[in-house]
Structure formats: C-alpha cells, structure tokens
Amino acid sequence: MSMKKAKVLIAAAALALLLGGCGKGSTENTVSSTETAKAEPTEALLILYGDESQRMREFSENEFHDRVLDEINVDVTIQYLPWSEYAGGKSELMLSSGEKFATYTDIAYLSKCISKGYYADLTDAVDKYAGHIKEYCGGDSAFDVWTIDGKVYAIPMGNNPNAGENYVISARRDIMDEVGMDSLDSIEDVEKFYQLAKEKYPEIVGISRGGMNLLNLNAAIASDVNVLKLDNFVMTDGNKVDDDSVYSYYESEEYRQMCEITRRWNQMGIIPSYLLSNSSQGDAEFVNGNGLFASGTNNTVFEFMDMVKKSTPNAVFENFFLGDKKRKPLMSRGTYTTAFAVSANVEGAELEGYVKLIDLLQSSQEWVDFITYGVKDKDYKLTEDGQVERITQENLFDTWMPNNINFKRYPTYATEEQIETFKNWDEDSILQKNIGFAFDMTPVKTEYAQLLAIEQEYLNPISSGFVDYEEALPAAIEKLKQAGLDKYVEEYQRQFSEFMAKKNGE
C-alpha cells in the first residue's frame, strides 16, 4: 500500500470513529455518517516529463498531495517519464492500453490521439469545473485550440505571452556586452558574435540547448513568405491570414534558404558536431554556462537564467527575433502554454476530479506560487516588492508549466527592461490562422508513419547542417514522394480548406 493511500484510509477511519462515537448521544441533531463523511476520494495520476528532483518527490507525496486531497478530495499521484517518451513511446503505450492518467499534449499530437480514441471528451466537466482557467487563462477562447468538432479534449495550463514562439534565439547578453555588441538582428550579427566570443572564450559552444530550430531563422531569410509550419511536412504563409493554401515544407524555397544558413553554421562550429546525435551534451554545456545560444521562447530568458546562474552567476540572457520583428505569428497554446489531456477511459466523478485538479493549480496566486516554488519560508521567500528568492534550488513543477502573466513572479535578478519586454511581447504579432484546426490523420496514417521515418533518417541531418542541402535533398525528397508525400499534402489541403471556409463563413 502506498503512503498516500494509507494517509487517505487513516483519515477516513478516524472520521468514521469520531462519527461513531458521536452517534451514541441524542438523536435529535445526529447526522448519519453517510451524510457527514467526505465522499471517497477520486484518484488522479499526472504524468510529467524530465528529471524528478528529490524535493519534488517529497513535495508531491506530502505537501502537494495532502493539500489537493483536502481542497478537492482528489488523491493525486505524480509520475515522471523521460522526455523521449513524450508524444509516443511509453506514454502512447499507456494510452493505447487503457491506463488512467492525464498528461500534457500539443495540438498535433492531440489530433493524432483523438483519431485513435485515446483522449476523453472533457466538455461537460470543463463547463462545470474550469471556472478559474476561464477567468485567468484567457477566457473561453483559451479552449479554442483544444476543441475539435465542438468537443474540448484538453485543459490549458498557464497564460503566457507567446508571439513568435520558437522563432526566437536566446543569447548570452553578458558576453555580448564584453565583446561590444548591442543587439542580434540578423544572421550576420549571430555569426559575428560567435566569432568574437570564440576569440575571448575558445572553449565556448554555439547552439547548446534545444537543437537547431529552423524557425529561429524564419524572419531573417530573403522571402516574403512567413513560414508557419502546420506539422512536420506542411506549411502555410502566416502573413496571409485568410488564405487556405498549404505547401510541402521540405520542397519550399524557404526551407532551402534556412538549410544554407545551418550548413554554414555547422561548418563554422556554431552548431556543434555532436548536437544531432547527442543533444544531452548540448544541454550539459548550456547548464554549465558554456553555451552562447539556445532555441527559446519569450519566457525562457528567465528559465535559462535560473539554470545557468547556478554555475555562472553573472550569466544574463536576452531573446532576439532575427529579422523583421513584425513577422511573428502568434503561436497557439499548443507550443508553450501547455494543456493537459485525460485518457479516454476516465469518466464520471473521476474525470471531473482531473478537471478540478488542473483548475485548482491555476486558481490563485497562492496556488501558482505553491506548485512553482513550494512551501513559503521553507522552499522560497518573497522580497518586499514581491520577487522570489529561492531557498530550495531543486526544481518542483517546471516553471514553464504554470507560467501565467496574471500570477507571474519575477526573479530578483530580472531587470525592468526584461519584465516590460515580457509583458509587451505579443504586440504587433500576427494571429496564427490555424488555431482550432486539428488534422484527422486517419486517411493517411500509413503515409505519415513512413514520412516520419524518412524525416528522421534523411531530413534531420540536412536541417541541422550536417549534410549539404544541394547534394542530399533530391534523394530525400524522392524517398518522401515514394512514401506518399503528395497524397499527404493533398489530404491536408482538403481538410484545411474546409476548416478555413467554415472559419471565414463561406
């Protein structure tokens, strides 16, 4: 028997004993145990990803568990899996085998799972028990991206400014100052900064976390097309908000230009030779303060500094949108602000318990502080101006997960400029036109599986600059064609056109 289950049973037994003793007196005002006793708690399993700290294990089994049980009568357990198991692997095996749990999802994976019947319909439970999410996380529209055919399949978590998400490169501001650079506005600026930094710090690494995301380069290439990837293989022009046209991403001129840059960066050393096969080494270099750049979002300037300051106290990060700053589509909540989906066979009071749980975690400043920083005066303290000073350095819930502009606590090292940049990040952004669209993979699921395998083997090395684009792409495209790329794009176009026509009232 688990410690948590034992706690629940002991509490129930104590209550029953108390009620039994009280029942021997006058019967006039006696209330039966069935009327007074708290209902049997529902169970909930949250699957999170990454490394679980010792303090998180203690926190989840004790303070967090007990408080959730007390407030909403849910007996919650947290289990961690490696990030490699996200959107596949063990987590998908758990879904397919009917295990009961909730975990976060993205919009592409949401669509895939719904087509396989893996996720529960949360619509009614959300209407009843997600009031705090609607109040603090963007209103009813927060659920739009997680709604398919009028049914809600995931519960958003957080409310984070997210324009141009993953179109951002985070760089070491402190080293920029040392070498006399004010800003990174272009590809040339990045290359110049790297060369100057290498002269001063020969052992420093270029791209050191998050791999090389081509979308970082989107606004800096010589094209009028604002690349908005709809999935791995299909893109659209984010600038044309009413246009339903989709294109094969790997056959686009924009992809070619991006690959030209990554090839050059690979040869220059900006992209380390090990990054494609050993991303954990890049992560380690980054945490040790030995990395210049990382793929990021607007909030990672704080997250990255939290990581790196442990080894390099003077480290400062700043986010840069390379190129035209007005070419940043407002990315959906599926990319950074996450959402929790519940496995399909959870129903009734148990399903309602999951919705109550996710809603509770975003119900107040107190709760967001609790899951982010832990127990006040034990794990953290607040300064007079409301900034956080960590006592416990071990991670609890990942800070990006509950990040909410309504409850945001800024670290003591955050400058006013960084805070204002964060608050105003969404200004001049372009609304992402595919919000609310979910591709039904069923007609092309075989083709998609084949395309993913070819992408992994042939396209990823090209995208990261390890293989020359001009030499390797024709053969890779031919393999994609043989696997059914044209059929896949055609089906995507059909469904997306239907969605856009309905959206535009046609």
Describe the structure.
This protein has four domains: 1-35; 39-159 and 334-407, D-Maltodextrin-Binding Protein, domain 2, CATH 3.40.190; 168-330, 3-Layer(aba) Sandwich (D-Maltodextrin-Binding Protein, domain 2), CATH 3.40.190; 442-503, no CATH class. It is 41% helix and 13% strand. The protein contains 19 helices and 18 strands. The strands form six sheets. The chain has a five-stranded mixed sheet. The protein has a four-stranded mixed sheet with strand order 8-12-7-13, with helices on both faces. Strand 4 and strand 5 (151-152) form a beta hairpin. The longest helix has 20 residues, at 3-22. Mean pLDDT is 87; it is low at 14-36. Residues 1-24 form the signal peptide. This is DUF3502 domain-containing protein. InterPro entries: DUF3502, SBP.
Give the C-alpha Rg: 25 Å
Label the structural class.
alpha/beta
Strand arrangement, major sheet? 2-1-3-15-6
Helix content: 40-55%
Topology:
Blueprint: H1 3-22, H2 33-36, E1 42-49, H3 54-61, H4 63-72, E2 74-81, H5 89-96, E3 102-105, H6 107-115, H7 123-129, H8 131-136, E4 147-148, E5 151-152, E6 155-156, E7 168-172, H9 173-178, H10 187-200, E8 205-207, E9 227-229, E10 234-237, E11 247-248, H11 253-268, H12 279-287, E12 291-296, H13 300-308, E13 317-320, E14 329-330, E15 339-342, H14 348-360, H15 365-373, E16 380-382, E17 388-390, H16 416-423, E18 430-431, H17 445-463, H18 469-483, H19 485-503
Parallel strand pairs: 1-2, 1-3, 8-12, 14-18
Antiparallel strand pairs: 3-15, 4-5, 6-15, 7-12, 7-13, 9-10, 10-11, 16-17
Helix pairs in contact: 3-4, 17-18
